[in-house]
Design a protein that fits this description.
The complex is a heterodimer of chains A (480) and B (102). In chain A, 39% of the residues lie in helices and 15% in strands. Chain A contains 16 helices and 13 strands. In chain A, the strands form three sheets. Chain A has an eight-stranded mixed beta sheet with strand order 6-8-7-12-13-11-9-10, with helices on both faces. In chain A, a hairpin with a 2-residue loop joins strand 12 (430-438) and strand 13 (441-449). Chain A is globular. Chain B is mainly α. In chain B, 32% of the residues lie in helices and 4% in strands. Chain B has three helices and two strands. Chain B has helices spanning 6-15, 22-39, 74-78, and strands spanning 84-85, 88-89. The longest helix of chain B has 18 residues, at 22-39. The chains are: A alpha+beta (480), B mainly alpha (102). Chains A and B meet through helix 10, helix 11, helix 12 and helix 13 of A and helix 1 and helix 2 of B.
Chain lengths: 480, 102
């Protein structure tokens, strides 16, 4: 069952080839048998999942089902889930039980999806390797000594290991696309404002966006329409119509104009470049035309992100004061001691470092304002380019996954986000699609679309996946 | 090389309510220096006539009628507090008391 696409699972459930409960038990068994090696889940919601599955079976029997009824899902552990721990992979929220559901969680629950559990991540989504989690790092299912990427590393690894057919994630600078590239799965970061972030714990509010990680573009298209769209609880959602993404996914891409930024190719690793060239060839065979383009301010994206994200994080994480929720130190001497010790003992080192950097950046308005100005120039580059091309193509990451604990220089690590950050700053939708292997490790191609053109990038990704099989390959985690 | 002093670090630590060991202060000082060097190129970009971009969209606040949308959740919300009683969050005493002399 775990090798099947969501479309196949839907067909099987509706024709009663097996029940939702049998399907749920199958995935739960895989998690229990093999996740010790991967560490992709923080919480497994077994009893609740079985109850939900039984309800889904009853609903299918009475024709009260939606398309997604009975399909298992996992949520990154920064989406609030009513009555279930939402930890953000932090000691700070180790005992936090959310009193409400995030909108994404609520909508998928209403659609009848089965929650298998909450996935591991970098603490408060700060990291690119999943090594900053309070619950230990996530191991890459393709090579257990390698990182999964991050911050949505648990979701990416869980989908790669086929512990779950689809998972939610969040992406602020590449946190869905980068782990998808490292783990060989497909991941979509939609347009900023496409999906509600109500109940998604904030990191850097002007770039945070919820998204999906799955085995294929088609699977993501099936689920996306259930969570996209305006939400009264999140005023940053945009009132744009939500199409049925499956309706256009089989459209021909003949005549599609693909922009290839020359800046992406400078100093690109040869082996990664070969995989990207091969992917371009496949798209050209399908009738797409490649045009060289330029994004002159692309090189400033990482430095701009290095100011904006920590600055916003230092503000967002000020709410953790040890009083209303979250970790609280033992026997505080006074209010100052309560604040300081609760935060110092509750946050991990990377989070503390980013709060410090962010506060420093905000201490001089020139840093933050200049970063915001250059952010506009980066965005205008994209706006100009999208007058000439339909999508922008390049590698998702400059290299495949690296060894756990290999890199200690934190700024260097963020270079794995070098191709993903610009689209985040501009708020554009982007998808990572597996396009091959380098030294046995997966590598992804990133397709960036114009605002609210999720349908176009899903269409191109799906057409590519119709003529290739990289997305169908599964790591052999069941071999000890 | 950008000069960042330990005094500056300690001032920020106070503002962000975080304690670092003296060893960590040095480490964070070096990290900040590294970050400042990393971001330095953006200050060479000409931005005189560029408007800062704080958000992707120019959001307009959507107004709604001022109706109660949710039931009382005080008890549920306070379950996550380390110290709460009688509907209040408890914190150490914050008002100083002075001895009154006759």
């Amino acid at each position: 069952m775990h090798r099947k696409s969501i479309a196949e699972l839907i067909q099987d459930l509706q024709t009663k080839k097996y029940s939702c409960e049998e399907l749920t038990r199958h995935f739960l068994q895989r998690i229990k048998s093999f996740d010790k090696k991967i560490n992709s889940f923080i919480t497994i919601t077994e009893d609740r999942a079985i109850q939900q599955a039984r309800l889904a079976d009853a609903n299918i029997k009475q024709n009260k089902n939606t398309l997604l009824t009975g399909i298992p899902i996992a949520h990154k552990d920064l989406f609030c889930t009513k009555g279930i721990k939402t930890s953000c992979a932090s000691k700070m929220l180790n005992d936090f039980i959310s009193p409400y559901n995030a909108t994404v969680v609520e909508r998928l629950e209403k659609a009848g999806m089965i929650l298998l559990g909450k996935t591991n991540m970098d603490e408060f989504a700060m990291g690119t390797s999943n090594e900053t989690s309070y619950y230990g790092c996530v191991h890459n299912p393709w090579h257990l000594q390698m990182v999964s990427g991050g911050s949505s590393g648990g979701s990416a690894a869980a989908v790669a290991a086929r512990f779950v057919p689809i998972a939610t994630g969040s992406d602020s600078g590449g946190s869905i696309r980068q782990p998808c590239s490292f783990c060989g799965v497909t991941g979509l970061k939609p347009t900023y404002g496409r999906i509600s972030r109500f109940g998604m714990v904030a990191f850097a509010s002007s770039v945070d966006q919820a998204g999906l990680l799955g085995s294929s573009a088609f699977d993501i298209a099936l689920v996306l329409k259930f969570i996209a769209g305006i939400d009264d609880y999140d005023f940053t959602t945009v009132n744009e119509p939500v199409p049925d993404y499956v309706n256009t996914i089989n459209d021909s891409i003949k005549g599609l104009r693909i922009g290839l930024p020359k800046e992406y190719l400078e100093n690109l690793d040869v082996a990664v470049g070969l995989q990207i060239d091969a992917a371009i060839t496949e798209l050209e065979k399908l009738g797409a035309k490649v045009h060289e383009i330029s994004l002159p301010h692309f090189k400033f994206a990482l430095p701009v992100y290095a100011i904006i994200a920590p600055a916003e994080c230092s503000s967002n994480l000020a709410r953790f004061d040890g009083i209303r929720y979250g970790y609280s130190c033992k026997e505080p001497l006074n209010i100052e001691d309560l604040y300081t010790r609760s935060r110092s003992e509750g946050f991990g080192e990377e989070v503390k470092r980013r709060i410090l950097v962010g506060a420093y950046m905000l201490s001089n308005k020139n840093y933050f304002v200049q970063a915001q100005k250059v952010r506009r120039l980066i965005t205008e580059d994209f706006v100009n380019v999208f007058k000439k091309v339909d999508i922008i193509l390049g590698p998702t990451t400059p290299l495949p996954a690296y060894r756990i604990a290999q890199q200690t220089e934190k700024i260097k690590i963020n270079f794995s986000d070098v191709f993903t950050t610009a689209a985040s700053l501009a708020g554009l939708p982007a998808i990572s699609v597996p396009v091959g292997f380098v030294d046995g490790l997966p590598i992804g191609m990133q397709l960036i679309g114009n605002y609210f053109k999720e349908d176009k990038i899903l269409n191109v990704a799906h057409q590519y996946q119709q003529v290739t099989n990289y997305h169908l390959q599964i790591p052999e985690i069941d071999v000890s | 090389m950008i000069a960042i002093t330990e005094k500056e670090i300690k001032k920020i630590m106070h503002l962000i309510k975080l304690n670092f060991t003296s060893e960590n202060v040095l480490m964070h000082k070096q990290h900040l220096v590294d970050v400042m060097e990393f971001i330095a190129p953006i200050f060479e970009v000409e931005t005189k006539n560029v408007k800062p971009m704080s958000q992707v969209w120019n959001f307009e606040l959507r107004l709604r009628s001022d109706n109660v949308m949710e039931n009382e959740q005080q008890e549920a919300l306070q379950k996550n507090a380390a110290r709460a009683a009688a509907g209040f969050y408890l914190v150490p005493k914050v008002i100083e008391t002075k001895e009154i002399k006759n």
